[in-house]
Automatic annotation (TrEMBL):
Keywords of this entry: Signal
Superkingdom of this protein's organism: Bacteria
Signal peptide range: 1-23
Residues covered by the Ferritin-like diiron domain: 23-166
InterPro entries, A to Z: Ferritin-like (IPR012347), Ferritin-like_diiron (IPR009040), Ferritin-like_SF (IPR009078), Rbr2/Nigerythrin (IPR052753), Rr_diiron-bd_dom (IPR003251)
Molecular function terms, GO-annotated: metal ion binding; oxidoreductase activity
Name of this protein: Rubrerythrin
A Pfam cross-reference name: Rubrerythrin
Organism of this sequence: Prolixibacter bellariivorans
SUPFAM superfamilies found in the cross-reference section: Ferritin-like, Rubredoxin-like
Entry-linked Gene3D superfamilies: 1.20.1260.10, 2.20.28.10
Length: 207
């Protein structure tokens, strides 16, 4: 219903001869959303592949972490896609490219990716969206930014567990908020700590 309403509203605005500010898709925020969509779509596919590799190497609990993060990245990509569509901008066609190595190297790769998103990418994207006053982009970027900080820590803990032969002590259950992608190691709270979505709307992944 909301999608239909947005389409009708856009058609009405165009009929009156007005062009939405972001329809041309040439603002920095739109470019940021397109880059973020590409990045999150790639991360979704990459972490799924890393999960498969971890299973092959006998690291079921590390595989579970990669699966939970992959699910979260898919949610982020979906949010960025929805924002682009609402702004009347093009959604990129993504053909993910990445290398799959051993689980230890895959964890290092994941940590590097999350570190870049937390330290550089999303802070800059949030500044651009704030400057251009694009609230829907700010919301989508913030959901991903807050979640990636947690992913970075989860991957760092996993690598530490692997290096110290303590993988069996890792969580065997994760919950992912279907609205913002917030990822909990173990049972999450009654409501998401990022977007306040009720726990019953979380997806649970477990061994």
């Amino acid at each position: 219903m909301k999608k239909e309403f947005s389409s009708l509203l856009l058609a009405f605005v165009l009929m009156l001869g007005f062009t939405p500010v972001f329809a041309a898709g040439n603002t920095q925020t739109v470019k940021d959303l397109q880059d973020a969509f590409t990045g999150e779509s790639t991360a979704h596919a990459k972490y799924a592949a890393f999960a498969k590799k971890a299973k092959e190497e006998g690291y079921a609990k590390i595989a579970l972490l990669f699966e939970a993060a992959s699910r979260a990245e898919k949610i982020h990509a979906g949010n960025h896609q929805a924002a682009l569509k609402q702004l009347g901008a093009d959604v990129p066609v993504v053909n993910p490219e990445f290398d799959v190595k051993g689980t230890r190297d895959n964890l290092k790769d994941a940590i590097a990716g999350e570190s870049y998103e937390v330290a550089t990418m999303y802070p800059n994207f949030l500044k651009d969206a704030s400057k251009e006053k694009v609230n829907i982009a700010m919301m989508s970027f913030n959901y991903a930014f807050q979640t990636e900080k947690k992913h970075k820590e989860l991957y760092e803990n996993a690598l530490n567990s692997l290096d110290n032969n303590q993988v069996n002590s890792m969580p065997s259950l994760y919950q992912v908020c279907l609205v913002c992608g917030n990822t909990y190691a173990g049972q999450g709270p009654a409501r998401c700590g990022i977007c306040m979505t009720p726990n019953e709307k979380f997806v649970t992944l477990k061994l």
